[in-house]
Design goal:
The structure is a single chain. Strand 3 and strand 4 form a beta hairpin. The chain has 1 helix and 5 strands. The longest helix is centred in the last third of the chain and has 5 residues. The protein is mainly beta. The protein has a 3-stranded mixed beta sheet, with no helix packed on it. Strands 3-4 form a two-stranded antiparallel ribbon. The protein is 7% helix and 42% strand. The protein has one domain. It is globular and about 30 Å long.
C-alpha cells in the first residue's frame, strides 16, 4: 500500500460526506481542510478526532488519539 503524504478533498461542494480511500496514512501527512469543512477520523465506528479548516500535520502532539489508527494496518 502506498504511503500518503497529503490529503485534500477537491470534489463538489454539495457532497455531505466523503470517505478517504483506505490507504496508509503516516506521521507527517498533511491534511488540508477547506473552509466550511471538517475532517473526522474514525476507527471501528468510533470518532477519534475532528480537524477544522486549515492545514494540519499528523503527529502525536496535535492528534494523540490517532496513534493507534496510523500505526495499525488496514
Amino acid at each position: 500500500m502506498p504511503i500518503i503524504d497529503r490529503v485534500k478533498y477537491d470534489g463538489p461542494a454539495n457532497v455531505l460526506v466523503w470517505r478517504y480511500p483506505p490507504d496508509n496514512l503516516s506521521w507527517g501527512t498533511q491534511v488540508i481542510v477547506n473552509q466550511a469543512q471538517e475532517a473526522l477520523f474514525f476507527r471501528g465506528g468510533q470518532a477519534l478526532d475532528v480537524l477544522g479548516p486549515g492545514t494540519h500535520t499528523l503527529r502525536t502532539a496535535n492528534i494523540p488519539l490517532l496513534r493507534g489508527l496510523i500505526a495499525a494496518p488496514f
